[in-house]
Sequence to fold (185 residues):
Amino acid sequence: MTLQPWTKLGDETLARHLVFHVRRSRQRSPRTGVEIPFFLIDTANWVNILPITEDGEIVFVRQWRHGSERVSLELPGGLIDPHEDEPIQGAIRELREETGHTAAQWVPLGDNNPNPAIMSNRCYVYLATGCRLAGELQQDLGEDLEVVKVPEQDLDGLIRAGGIDHAIVLATIALWRAHTAGLAE
Fold:
């Protein structure tokens, strides 16, 4: 059996927020013909950065996350601003704002869909190498960040111990490793 796309019957915006909109999308199943409502989140595309310093340390940020109600260890990243024509512009800005670092080299690692079940956006992933501190953090009002540098050789142990559990961060690390493995082939 070949899966078929569902037929969109209509959308209704339920809520608008500064960074996302929630909508109910009425869809018809091609298999059953039944109409089912889905609740979807529309937001701008994101960037996520894997920054590595000149000394081989990965630059992370630690911050409070309201959804999990705890502090989370994450890679820098965030929304691509409306005036940024290319995702790399958002990546450069987010690295500088969230960590105070700049990078000597940028490599696009790919993109992914953060949660295709309910979200319509993409997350663009970059490797930033030769990172060095260039100034103070420029945090948004809703951010309280702490910069944490992790030696590259400690990363797997940190993941195994549950020290990193943010799915987009883990996806970024997977894309980086796939890129690195491709270079070794």
Notes: The CA atoms of residues 104 and 130 lie 5 Å apart. The helical segments are 87-99, 155-160, 167-184. Residues 46-184 form a domain with the Nucleoside Triphosphate Pyrophosphohydrolase fold (CATH 3.90.79.10).
